[in-house]
Each structure stands twice: as C-alpha cells, then as structure tokens.
Amino acid sequence: MTPPFLDIAGLSCGYGSQVVLKDISFFVQKGDIVTIIGPNGCGKTTLLKTLPGLIPALGGRVNMQGQDMNKMPRDLRARTIAMVMQTLESIHMTVEEYVLLGRLPHFSSWQFLEKEADRDLARSFMAFTHIDHLRESPLNCISSGERQLAGIAKALVQEPALLLMDEPTSHLDISHQAQILNRVKTMKDRHGLTVVMVQHDLNLASEYSDQVLLLDKNTKTVFKYGTPETVITRDNIRAVYHTDVVVAPNPHSGRPGIFIKTDSQESISP
Predict the structure, then answer these.
(1) How many CB atoms lie within 10 A of CB 174?
(2) Which of 170, 182, 230, 262 has the fewest C-beta atoms under 10 angstroms from its C-beta?
(3) SS3 breakdown of the chain: % helix, strand, coil, rounded to 5?
(4) What does this protein do (predicted)?
(5) 171 by DSSP, 3-state: which?
(6) pTM of the shown model
(7) Cα–Cα distance for residue pair 33/90, rounded to 1 Å
(8) DSSP β-bridge partners for residue 225
(9) pLDDT tens digits, residue range 139-188?
(10) What is the distance between the alpha carbons of residues 132 and 122, in angstroms, rounded to a whole number?
(11) Taking Cα atoms as reference points, which of 206, 101, 111 lies closest to residue 155?
C-alpha cells in the first residue's frame, strides 16, 4: 500500500488550555481532495491551521511524506505548503504583484526581485484562473470572487505539493464557486496536487471531494471519515447537525445531494 501523503495521528488542537479538538486521526493520499465539514464552531479552521503549524498542536503528530511537519525547515514548508484563507487581505498592489508574492519562498538568499520566469509563471496561472485581464487592476478594486481567484493563482504560483483552503467559496455566487473548485480539481487531476479544504456547503463537499472528514462539535473529534457516499448520509447529518435532510444522488454525478426538508419546522434536539 502506498504510504499516505499526510498522516495525522492523535492530534489535539486549541489555544492554550482551551482544547477545541482532540484525538484527530486520518490520512490523506497524494493527489486527493479532502474536505473538512461540520457545524459552526466545531474547529474546522482551527484544524486546518494546525496542520502546517500556524497554530501549535496541543498533542499528537502531523507527518507529511514521512516527515514530522514541526521538524521541517521553515523554508521547505513555505515552498511545499500554500494556504488560501476565507477572506483575502485587500492591500494596495496590483493583481499581478499580489500573485507574484507566491514566488517569494523560491527566491535565493540575495534575490530581491522576481525573475522573468517568475513573471511568466504568474501570468500563466492568472490565465488559468481567468483573471489575466485584471493583471494591472488594484487588488482592492476587484470583486470578492475575483480576489479569491487571485488568491488561488498566488497559491498555485508557489508550486506547492499541498494546498490548504479555508472556505474558498464562501459568499461567492455559483459561477465563482464553480470556477474556483474546477480550477483546483484540474490541478489535482493534471499535477497530483493534494488539497485539504474547509467547506460549509455540503453539496460542494460531496461533488469535489475524494474523502470527507466530518467533525462532531459535541465530542470534539472525528465523527466519520471516508468517501462522500459513506460520510454524507441522512443519519450522519442528523446526528451531527441535528437537522433532518433528504439525501439523494445527483442525477449528473451520482454523488450524494443534500436537500432541506421544508416541512420540518425545528431542528432535531441533540
């Protein structure tokens, strides 16, 4: 069996003495898209930030390609792991200048400016994410969807092995949601990019994921990990979200689709 790309064992996450999650164990194969789901406040973003060490783990381990993430040199981590946050900063620079920031981890010790090859790579990923026409636009003058696409382009320009995304499609219309997730899936299919993302939309999680990690707010640990078909079920949604839903196959993909029961007036008590 192929060793996992990411191996998380007994991980506890939190802030100081506050434990948000405990005994988190799962693995991620290279080239998979793994989506973390769960109710508000269950620790999805905390877990995502703990994986690369942005938040120190309270216990357990995270290994990437057999190496303890905490013992990896910072420059190697910076080149290997890219992260796209839910809300991108609105800073005073052009879209191209922002995307080029993704090349900084690859600069040599005495390199202060990007090379032509860096600019070519940035422009190719701006074209890939359909924002090349915004190259000279100020970042703070484009829409939130376009800014999120710029964040994806910046992450891909970094040429990472692992892409972490925190709710990359939140507050976006269906067009931008599809653009972002289709671009990410293309990179996974073409180049074996490994992706771990947080997602609130269960239908998007179902459609784009190879594996889904469902967190339980009450027990502060993993409720279920597996394929969308085994995780996104009516019983699991009822147990964790305390809401009754209808789960039926998407007629196009066959993946589980989640539908709210409009005749249900109240959520189910835990």
Answers:
(1) 9
(2) 262
(3) 35, 25, 35
(4) Part of the ABC transporter complex HmuTUV involved in hemin import. Responsible for energy coupling to the transport system.
(5) coil
(6) 0.92
(7) 28
(8) 213
(9) 988 988 888 899 999 999 999 999 999 999 888 889 989 989 999 999 99
(10) 9
(11) 101
